[in-house]
């Protein structure tokens, strides 16, 4: 009976020790995926020529992505995840800003005719 209790305690201890590392592995994977998604959106925006109309926002996105990569290399996965999501949101904002500015320019052109 005593042996069973000790085995049960050992298993519980090992489970408790393994659970935090499993959670950290999830954070690392989430950060890696978010960084890749942000990079893809940033590359897509750059290829679409967004830089001219929304270069300031695109630069902020690029900076956030660089910071996310730095935090990821420093094993600060949760911070890297937040920065990658910020970079992705800024890339989306840059695309939307460029589209809005292009539409505004077209509207002004039509209004002046």
Largest sheet features: none
Tell me the radius of gyration.
23 Å
Counted by DSSP, the helix tally is 3
Q: What gap, in angstroms, lies between the N and C termini?
A: 93 Å
Portion of residues within helices: over 70%
- Overall mean confidence score, pLDDT: 82
Globally, the shape reads elongated
Question: How many domains make up the 3D coordinates?
Answer: 1
Content-based structural category: mainly alpha
Strand content: under 5%
H/E series: HHH
- Topology, number of strands: 0
Can you tell me the residue ranges where pLDDT is under 50 for at least 5 consecutive residues?
A: 8-12, 16-23
Lay out the secondary structure:
Blueprint: H1 2-47, H2 50-73, H3 77-112
Helix pairs in contact: 1-2, 1-3, 2-3
Features:
0% strand; elongated; 113 residues; 3 helices; mainly alpha
Describe it.
Keywords: Coiled coil, Signal. Residues 1-25 form the signal peptide. Residues 86-113 form a coiled coil. By secondary structure, the chain is mainly alpha-helical. It has one domain. Helix content is 94%, strand content 0%. The chain contains three helices and no strands. It has helices at residues 2-47, 50-73, 77-112. Helix 1 runs antiparallel to helix 2 (50-73), helix 1 (2-47) runs parallel beside helix 3 (77-112) and helix 2 packs antiparallel against helix 3 (77-112). The model is unreliable at 8-12 and 16-23 (pLDDT under 50).
């Amino acid at each position: 009976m005593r042996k069973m209790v000790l085995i049960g305690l050992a298993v519980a201890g090992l489970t408790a020790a393994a659970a935090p590392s499993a959670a950290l592995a999830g954070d690392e994977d989430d950060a890696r995926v978010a960084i890749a998604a942000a990079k893809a959106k940033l590359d897509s925006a750059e290829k679409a020529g967004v830089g001219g109309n929304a270069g300031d926002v695109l630069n902020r996105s690029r900076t956030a992505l660089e910071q996310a990569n730095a935090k990821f290399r420093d094993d600060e996965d949760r911070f890297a995840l937040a920065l990658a999501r910020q970079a992705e949101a800024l890339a989306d904002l840059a695309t939307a800003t460029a589209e809005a500015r292009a539409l505004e320019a077209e509207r002004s052109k039509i209004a002046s005719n």
